[in-house]
Amino acid sequence: MKIIIDTDPGQDDAVAILLALASPEIEVLGITAVAGNVPLDLTTKNARIICELARRTDIPVFAGARQPLKRPLVTAEHVHGRTGLDGPTLPDPTMPLQDQDAVEFIIETLRREEAGTVTLVPIGPLTNIALALLKAPDIAERIERIVLMGGAYFEVGNITPAAEFNIYVDPEAAETVFRSGVPLVVMPLDVTHKALVTKARNDAFRQMDTPVGTAVAQMTDFFERFDKQKYGSDGAPLHDPCTVAWLLKPDLFTGREINVEIECLSDLTRGMTVADWWGITDRPKNSLFIGDLDADGFFDLLTDRLARL
Ligand code: BDR
Ligand code: CA
């Protein structure tokens, strides 16, 4: 299957990219970077660092939006560290950034490839995806589906009491995507907080004794600090890799087809995903909202694939 990964790396973004690059079922047409966890100059750099770690310098990496559609950028160095990829010491990338703008690449690719054959995998704020949909509305019906990490229902929130980071940073972009009519698969905190890198799972990465295994162990060592402190959880939550794992093995996940609307007006609840889990309204269903996963199956898949790199 053909995918474009839209990302703001981020340690968990990095693991999602590595999982995709390690999986023969998936063809990564390109990686588009967006500002999010850290500013754009770092996310474009980090995306290339990860491609080089996977020895995949053939993957084109594009720079997208520096700012959300209507708001100043909010970043998450308190979670990901100053570089966005704190933990391992990885060399600066030597592969070039593409000249083409990320939004143009997304539009051009969707118009070139056969309709219904390209899946978008956004794992950062939805700015690039919304810009593409706003600029070229014809692409909406050509997208096979969008499998995104964002939002929360029972587990709200991780940047405010009401909101998850990716949706909070650019709620107007999220609203554009959720109202686009494109089939959506949503990985909210409800499921990603169950994909925890426990000590045993971290050891399994380290025991690969490869550059990728060691880097992933070091990244998740760093990344677990925030969640252990805040939620008392048993290791780092691998939010973003849930998207790629769903593409590979959807049976590992369960969820419901529901309506989700995005709060854009209130400051207090900005970026809240108002998820009609119980079917209270008759608003049209627009998302497969995932609530649970087989965590051991997920980590078996991830460990098996990462070991191939
Ligand atoms: C999301 O925000 C970022 O910090 C992570 O990379 C993930 O995409 C989790 O809320
Ligand atoms: Ca991310």
TrEMBL record:
Gene Ontology molecular functions: purine nucleosidase activity; uridine nucleosidase activity
The domain of life is Bacteria
Domain Inosine/uridine-preferring nucleoside hydrolase: residue ranges? 3-300
> Which Pfam families does this UniProt record tie to the protein?
IU_nuc_hydro
Give one GO biological process term.
Answer: purine nucleoside catabolic process
Entry-linked Gene3D superfamilies: Ribonucleoside hydrolase-like
Among PROSITE patterns, the record links this protein to: IUNH (PS01247)
Keywords on record = Glycosidase, Hydrolase
Under the heading CDD domains, the entry gives: nuc_hydro_IU_UC_XIUA
Task: Give the EC number(s) under which this enzyme is classified.
Answer: 3.2.-.-
A GO-annotated cellular component = cytosol
> What protein am I looking at?
Pyrimidine-specific ribonucleoside hydrolase RihA
